[in-house]
Write a structure and sequence with these properties.
Helix content: 25-40%
Distance between the termini: 17 Å
CATH architecture of the largest domain: 3-Layer(aba) Sandwich
Strand order of the largest sheet: 3-2-1-4-5-6-7
CATH superfamily of the largest domain: Glycogen Phosphorylase B
Number of helices: 13
Shape: globular
Low-confidence stretches: none
Mean pLDDT: 96
CATH topology of the largest domain: Rossmann fold
Length: 366
């Protein structure tokens, strides 16, 4: 019989996929405790599911107070694994675990922004005390394996790919009426859910919109933190479809908005991970158009459950939007395929099983 497995997970505000995997592992007998932000939907979901949950907000990347808090919990009971799911958790957790017999597991959700020449990276994911780094997509694992120079590299066993799993049942009706954004009921709707930072390539999408033939009954809903920045507003105001472009900041109910959208575009230029917005869109039946950046292509079967286009090129986006707008049967087939792709290939149960296997592997090394 397997030895009981004890795990301490530490993060900020856990997202639905992380929360779901914690709950699934708890159901499967893992003695899992989670330190996470109180007062959130996901915190409430954890406690409702009976997962031992400690309310705490990590403040600072290296905080003596946070280090003491995590260390006290690690000393309270003999944990096999300390799983650190964001930067603050990782940097504080590395210090908190010094001298303790616990395996360290970190997490990486995007490509790039690490270097062996950067001292902070040594205090973070490139720290040699980390036993495993769970990469949310294979593109990230390959990026991590390519870092460094001979003699200064991560061990090939350190980065491990485990896709974040989801469950369509998390996003049940009622869905949000698009009329609240000024979008007519009969409109064909293209959504873009992303942070409005340069690497997300939103100006490329706006250029693609501008290249569409005028007069089509298409509306565009662009939403996310910093999406409503001055550059995006300026480009939208000059666009052929200016009156049909609706730009908003972060919309918390976006997963319940996307089922009423026909297409979801993510025009990232670089450093993409496994985009949650696209996963939520596919669950809702929106056909994804993504760039060949990071893990986005791992979500999609080209031409079956979505389209993959080159980063930085607007014309291919224009052409895919037009193809789906003009052929509603094609859209219907791809919409169902997009939903099925996430339902069948990115299950939260699979994430939990693979994560538990990783924990067991590390436990056996103690």
């Amino acid at each position: 019989m397997d030895k009981p497995l004890t795990v301490l997970c530490v993060n900020g505000e856990s997202d639905p996929a992380e929360t779901g995997s914690f709950i699934e592992m708890h159901k499967r007998g893992v003695d899992i405790t989670v330190i996470t932000w109180p007062g959130t939907f996901n915190y409430d979901a954890l406690t409702a599911a009976g997962v031992p949950t400690i309310p705490y907000v990590l403040k600072g990347k290296i905080s003596p107070k946070c280090i003491r808090f995590i260390r006290n919990e690690l000393k309270r009971k003999p944990y096999d694994v300390l799983h650190m799911l964001d930067k603050r958790a990782t940097m504080n957790g590395i210090w908190a675990s010094i001298g303790l017999d616990v395996k360290l597991v970190a997490y990486r959700g995007i490509v790039g922004n690490l270097s062996y020449l950067d001292p902070q990276s040594w205090l973070y994911l490139l720290n040699p005390r980390i036993d495993r780094i769970i990469c949310v997509c294979e593109a990230i694992r390959q990026y991590l394996l390519g870092l460094g120079i001979p003699g200064i590299r991560l061990g090939r066993e350190v980065p491990v790919t485990i896709h974040k799993g989801h469950n369509p049942d998390w996003y049940q009706p009622p869905y949000e009426d698009l009329g609240q954004f000024g979008i007519p009921d009969d409109a064909f709707v293209v959504a873009c859910t992303a942070r409005g930072v340069p690497r997300k390539g939103v100006p490329v999408l706006l250029d693609a919109i501008d290249k569409l033939p005028p007069g089509l009954n298409i509306h565009f809903l662009l939403a996310g933190t910093q999406m409503d920045n001055p550059l995006h507003k300026k480009l939208a105001a000059k666009n052929t479809y200016a009156d049909n472009i609706h730009i908003h900041s972060f919309l918390k109910r976006m997963p319940w908005i996307l089922p009423n959208c026909h297409i979801a575009v993510l025009p990232s230029l670089r450093r993409e991970g496994l985009p949650r917005g696209i996963i939520e869109a596919m669950i809702g039946g929106a056909v994804p158009i993504v760039t060949d950046s990071g893990g986005s292509p791992e979500l999609i079967e080209e031409g079956v459950s979505g389209y993959i286009v080159p980063p930085g090129e607007s014309q291919p986006i224009t052409e895919r939007i037009l193809a789906l707008y003009n052929d509603r049967d094609l859209h219907s087939r791809m919409s169902q395929a997009a939903h099925n792709r996430i339902r069948d290939n990115f299950k939260v149960e699979d994430t939990a099983i693979k994560t538990m296997a990783l924990y067991r592997e590390l436990q056996s090394q103690n």
